[in-house]
Design brief:
The complex is a heterotetramer of chains A (335), B (623), C (593) and D (177). The mean pLDDT of chain B is 93. Helices cover 65% and strands 3% of the residues of chain B. Chain B starts with a helix and ends in a 13-residue tail after the last helix. In chain B, helix 5 runs parallel beside helix 18. In chain C, the strands form 10 sheets. A 5-stranded mixed β-sheet of chain C has the order 1-32-33-34-35, with no helix packed on it. In chain C, strands 2-38-37-36 form a 4-stranded antiparallel β-sheet, with no helix packed on it. With 593 residues, chain C is mostly beta strands. Chain D has a two-stranded parallel ribbon. With 177 residues, chain D is an all-alpha fold. The model of chain D has no long low-confidence stretch (mean pLDDT 85). Classes of the chains: A alpha+beta (335), B mainly alpha (623), C mainly beta (593), D mainly alpha (177). Chains in contact: A-B, A-C, A-D, B-C, B-D, C-D. Chains B and D meet through helix 5, helix 7 and helix 18 of B and helix 1 and helix 3 of D.
Chain lengths: 335, 623, 593, 177
Amino acid sequence: MRPAIFSAILLLAGCRGRQNALDFASDQSSAIGDVWHLMLVVCGVMYLLMMLLLGWAIWRALKARAASHDARTAAPGVDRKWRAALAAWSALIVLGLFVLAGGSFLVDRRLARGEDPNALQVRITASEWWWQVEYLDPAPSHTIVTANELHLPVDRPTHVELRSNDVIHSFWVPNLNGKTDLIPGRSNFQTLTPRRTGRWRGQCAEFCGLEHARMAMDVTVHDAAGFAEWQAAQRALAKAPDTPRRTEGQHVFMTSTCASCHTIAGTDASGKVGPDLTHLASRHSLAAGALPLDAKTLAAWISQPHAEKPGTNMPATDLPPDRLGALVDYLMSLR
Amino acid sequence: MNTARELDATWADAPGWRGWIATVDHKRIGRRYLVTAFVFFIMGGILALVMRTQLAYPNGHVVGPDRYNQLFSMHGSSMMFLFAVPVMEAVAVYIVPLMCGTRNIAFPRLNAFSYWIYLFGGIMIYAAFFLNVGPETGWFSYVPLAGPQFSPGKRTDFWAQMITFTEVAALAVAIELIVTILKMRAPGMTLARMPLFLWSMLVTSFMVVFAMPAVMLASSFLIMDRLVGTHYYNAAEGGDPLLWQHLFWFFGHPEVYIIFLPALGMVSSITQTFARRPVFGRLALVVSLVATGFLAFGLWVHHMFATGLPRMGNSFYTAASMMIALPSGVQIFCWMVTLGTGRPKFSTPLLFVIGFFITFVLGGLTGVMQASVPLDLQLHDTYFVVAHFHYVLIGGSVFPLFGAFFYWFPKFTGKALNETAGKWTFWLFFTGFNVTFFPMHIAGLQGMPRRVYTYPGDMGWGLWNLMSTAGSYLIAISMLVFIVNVVRTLRSRETAAENPWDAPDLEWAAASPPAKYNFAAVPVVTSDTPLWTERDALGALSGLRDDRPEVLITSAVEAAPQIRWGMPSPSVWPLVTALGLTVMFVWSIFTPWGIVWGAIPFAIGATVWFWPKRSQPGLESES
Amino acid sequence: MRQGAGRVARALLLVAGASFMPVLAQEAGVQEKGEWPMPAHDLASTRYSPLDEITAANAGKLKVAFTFSTGVDRGQEAAPIVVDSTMYIVSPYPNIVYALDLTREGAPVKWSFRPQPDAAAQGVACCDVVNRGAVVAGGKLFFNTLDGQTIALDVATGKQAWRTKLGDINRGETMTMAPLVVKDKVLVGNSGGEFGVRGWLTALDTATGKLVWRAYSTGPDKDVLIGPSFKPFYASDKGKDLGMTTWPPEAWKTGGGSVWGWISYDPESNLVFYGTANPGPWNAEQRPGDNKWTAGIFARDVDTGEARWFYQFSPHDLYDYDAINENVLVDLPIDGTTRKVIVRPERNGYVYVIDRASGEVLSADPFSPVNSTLGIDLETGRPRYNPDKQPRMGKVVRDICPTAPGAKDWNPSAWSPDTGLLYIPHANLCMDWESMQANYIAGTPYVGAEVRMYAGPGGHRGVLTAWDPVRRRIAWEIKEDLPVWSGTVVTRGGVVFYGTMDGWFKAVDAKDGKPLWKFKTGSGIIGQPVSYRGPDGHQYVAVLSGVGGWAGAIVAGNLDPRDGTAAKGMVNATTDLKQKTQPGGTLYVFALP
Amino acid sequence: MAACIALTLGGCEREKRDFTGPQPPGGPAPPLVGLQPGTPSPVPPDPRGARYENNAYHIGQGQNLFRWMNCNGCHANGGGDAGPALMDGEWRYGGDIDHIYASIDQGRPNGMPSFRGKIPPEQIWQLAAYVRSLSGNIRKDAVPSRSEGMSATPPLTRRESEPPKGGDPAPNQEPQR
């Protein structure tokens, strides 16, 4: 009765989801899905057998209790029969383990296939509570630096290099692949080969301090044309302010504390401590997936970041409302 | 019966609190251990309730991130270090000498010392927690988050020192148990006839001896990194954050088997007693216990599949992690056959064992699932893992523990716990447990990572978290029922029979609660179920003096009598030594000189503790 | 000191010596009067004095002729300039210029000039508030101030002729180099590679100080003045706008390549040769690509500034090897033919011999222990970087030789046509290096690395090496306890002068390095010794004593020896310097009694 | 046990993780010199100084900011470079937290830039607290022993404290006319 519920609930729970290990959207996650189904079946059967054995034991006990003689029965001759059953049961377990181990190795080998020359090269550097994402390119002047977002071309492998600036984090987009830790002092690697376009979400999966819960990443898989268009847009420098209010906003950005930590390519601001804001408005979320990206939230985030993400390294900035409005207007123009 | 009065006088403690703090009687210390461990279990449970209340709804504001991080760190640390291992050792401290048929545990003063160190460790960490200096980086505190730069203040230092406290206590008890089981068994109790609970405690103790030093080394390295700026875990200067993970998990995985194996011993005892027949496949069970003990040391890297270690290495650990399913499967099979071919009586202890079968097997199978490297990359550090280890820890250890508590309560107190209240406790606990932890499998598969103080509303995790919170309150209610049952039973006057369950093991040959000297005469055993085969004709061996505390030392394999051994008298110095060591440990959190100056009170206490007794009454006249 | 083996080679060389005539007979007038008009003595940067009154025989009897205190106790890196019986000295910040009248006894001050540079400039001077000296030409004295101004003074009166503001301290720009005057142009460059400055070389008109042309070291070809006449020898330097494409986007704007070292001029080809400094930031992983035109040598037409050729010593420089060292223009017999070459003792530890016309590297041989590169591939001209010494972010890479200041820093070597040897004063240090993310805030350091230096193989920290560029090997060398950070001068009399960081001013025999004479000055010497003929016809030798610069930062800046990474790692190699010398700022002039 | 309790009780202040909203800029800088004409009227230090100086979280943030804001470019790990050494007892412009706050905020004539408006006041306080710890003037239980990078100096926790005393006020005497 138990395993039936087990798989029923899973189906009921729905395998659809933006951050769902059972909603396979890439070679890697579907390969892992195969292991999952194998495990589910084999373990389900073993569990069923165990529960049947338990059921049989309880049923026999109730029947024997009815016979109601309470003598402490010596070990009956029947044990020899059960010893054979024990041997069979052990053999069954060993067989089950061989099947599972074999299935797991085969899938592991499939995942560990070699380097694909035409793979997109991406380097993700994790910091305390946000992601820096760099799209590397043989021509260095074509590199793209963005934050908290991953854009991938469909049907083309992406080779991700994972590094950390401070503590151990773990890069995990369940719909695309398993997780790999980002450990300071070494580089780990992962390959993603998306097979479906769409938007997913990944989240840090290794406890990394105060805002571990709010360290997410939006993942968008484009078709080839969409990806090329996105790349071209990202390579462009930041839009120059086209209205006086935005010019004043840019002035506020350059002269106040923002430029010490953030970069807007095309202006003098190139601080590397905080995320790159060159194309901030083109992103789907704010503060590593913690907040929706709109003017009101951005204003609140700039003046009181600790209200939303207590412990974040973004400091509170004391700006009069008009200058704050101009700044937000300028930042929201950076598509 | 002047020997009884004589023995009573010889083994008695001083009256009042002076005797209370100086006792070396394994039963008084065992009871204290059990009560203290249970208090920490309740406090850990309350912490879990607050966590579940915070996670009941998305974007909850019950507690902030800093408080929540301290909550889950304290919950994990107190459950693993202050409850699970000590409670199993507490039961063993009480039952093993009785089951072996001897009068006291080996090294009784070390036993007292280990309790005080364990108590002071628990007090220190909870005092720190209430002073906002509690641990905040989880029960396994990965560096560099737990390192000097990313964990400011003294929070992680207190956590690391708490590990030193509890490991010293655990190692001490492990040594005592190994010596008691191997050298102080009743004559005739050969290894082949030794009860399964003793086997499981023997294997557990050896695992403690081999596993604990790894984590004490790791936590000492961490304290040195944080206090005097060494570079063990500094990736830049040649140290390595993974050194911490290897050292910790080399201890970590055997730790969870240290918690689990005693439970297997308890299940064997309860199943055998309530199935009304000797356990089926005794040899298979013993071999499985020993196999589990060895295998536990070979699979710690399955906690580190996501750290980017070479894939070939990981595959070996997949195989090792899967192999451990074999001994567990064999044991479950043997117990079920024992039940099926006996005439089981479904009282509370057996109910908890049935609960154990249902939950532990599910937890074991999800464990086998996570042994696969690719699958573990999806499941690691998600709520799926939280579900798994609660199934194997609560299902695998706490259920048998409660079963054993109901089973041995008459032996501890002479009074049997109320059966209906017991059944209520079980069904509330079992249902609450499954309602709490089964939805976590689904939340984990849906991408909810571990240790998040909150989660967004649009991820579809809300329903599962709400169910988990409801279930956790159910478990709390079951605990209340249990506490009320214990209190009412202790207050009531009607007592239970000496062997209410008609159990076969030697501990039931002594009175309930046993006299200070356990057995007037050393029992002699001729079979593996002594009270069933030689019920009244239990042989007895005389010759131990009754005017000084003496125990019989027997050979390891055949349990043939060898020598009579004088046991140390009650003394307050183990407590003083423990206080000295506490001063040294706490002081060395703040300055390395604390080790130097703190060693003085410890040395004084230890010297007086081990000071040889000059005058042995009547020893000289011995031929 | 391997003198024995060298003696035989010496005899042979003397015979061939005649053919190494210094290239530049053109300024004969200057030669006879025994003047020292520019820090490098001549446009070929030989630092060779034609005077021979002081010889190996009588050098032992040298006495102090007179001294003069500049009143500033920071690093004295300047070279005393002597023209028309007047000596001109520039002090470190506040860059006071003194004119000493050599005709009168004790050389009293004729006039002094205080440029009043902005005091805040001291905060953006990476390696001590130094100045490498002035230059006198056409009746005017030209020098740079720390806050980025080039000033011309009238030599007779000391009044200011003109002053041009070129550098902006708010972007981290300073100016410490000694200008070079060629025809009617003053060539100056900026410093600030450690502050993410964009380097440039600027030519100003000597009469008015107006900007004639400016060549940037990074950016589009039009900024770098690369046009049709640009014919680099190696393939990797050919391409359009390499100053941008070999950088991550926008990184070239804070890409370094400042020009704070030595410039030489070859009148035959009308080309100036100068080196560009390190790319910014030091953390190479933050700037993938070759980072063109940094850490290389440019040849430019002096009139238009158009680049003729370029060679990059350290593409995608990993260890802050600024390529600003001196370019000694000589004609050397190579494979049987006399080639017009540049001899460059480079910071990466190799002595390069480069063809002046085409920029082809004829030879590159280590003159000091090197393990950061495994050799120079002469086909492509690129160094083969040693993979296990590649810096990595978040990891300390150990025992990299030579260190960030290089096997030899800016302190110039001297060339003697008589002995055919290049006298290289250099350090023997190795380092541990850790790269990290560098955060750019204009006007603050933009480094991204932490370093710890220590003595190199052999335990001695400094060497004076006599290098034979034809046989491409060390003729002889003198090991010094402390790094040798002073310049050198060699005279026709066959004597080489150099100073040590604990204050000894030494003379050694140019042929075999036998010590002849030494004098203990008041403070460590990082200045450039010069030799001139005084109004009385006698030969004088002058040097500024005053420890400082990058090597002496622990004394000049009163740093704390307990921090190994202080002064970008130099303190770890000079913890004993505070006991061996004190700050100072005094000119010493010596002569035969 | 009493000693341990006292120690841990004192710990509450050290461990508070207070995430503050925007802070008003520091008050008027305290006087640089103790010499006052007439009867001396001591100026009370800014109360916030003590709050940042005794709090481990703020000192930890100060350690990160010391590298993020490029302070280590001129002061290295306390040993100095273009800027003076911060780990000894010599302070030209005052060594207690208010003076260090003023030095960072206003800048100093010989090359210390003014970070007013470029670093928010809360972070300047955190930097000032960390700088105080470089010379061992902060309680040893609130100070990180080392950073996760290159080992440069003896651990902060083992540094004997050097109470600030005056430095030579005129580092670079302008020679007389």
